[in-house]
Amino acid sequence: MVADAFATSSEDELQFPDTGSLRKDMAVQMRRLIRILRSERGKVVAALVAGGQSDPELIEAFRERFLWPRRRQAYKRLQAAMGRGELARNTDLDLVLDALYGAIYMRLMIQHAELREELADQICAMVLKDCKER
Predict the structure, then answer these.
(1) Distance between CA atoms of 58 and 11, rounded to whole angstroms?
(2) N or C: which end of the chain has fewer CB within 10 A?
(3) Predicted TM-score (pTM) of this structure
(4) What is the predicted pLDDT for the residue at 109?
(5) Segments forming the whole domain that contains residue 61
(6) Domain count, the chain
(7) What SS3 string covers the chain?
């Protein structure tokens, strides 16, 4: 129920833009996610992820209701970037998404460094450095 409430409350905010540039699309969406995670709703996400480590049903609900819908949207943006020649056709989409979002979740959960919106741009520059901008 908590996973459903969080997913519903963030659905509109976390839509991926379609600017025609993978870096821009990803950075905008990642900044939106960071804003949410810095809010009170971020505490809900942290609790869901933490609780899910010992509760398989909880983490499955989080994945099904929040994670997978966002990843499916991200796959579409990555595939469109492949079609435009921004990404190589043999790119591992799951690895790209894990690299893009992993640092965000690491900072949320471990709190070893501040979770700032600028992090989105830094991550995109690093992970998508070989991405051919149009």
Answers:
(1) 19
(2) N
(3) 0.89
(4) 95
(5) 2-127
(6) 1
(7) CHHHHHHHHHCCCCCCCCCCCHHHHHHHHHHHHHHHHHCHHHHHHHHHHHHHCCCHHHHHHHHHHHHHHHHHHHHHHHHHHHHCCCCCCCCCHHHHHHHHHHHHHHHHHHCCCCCCCHHHHHHHHHHCCCCCCC
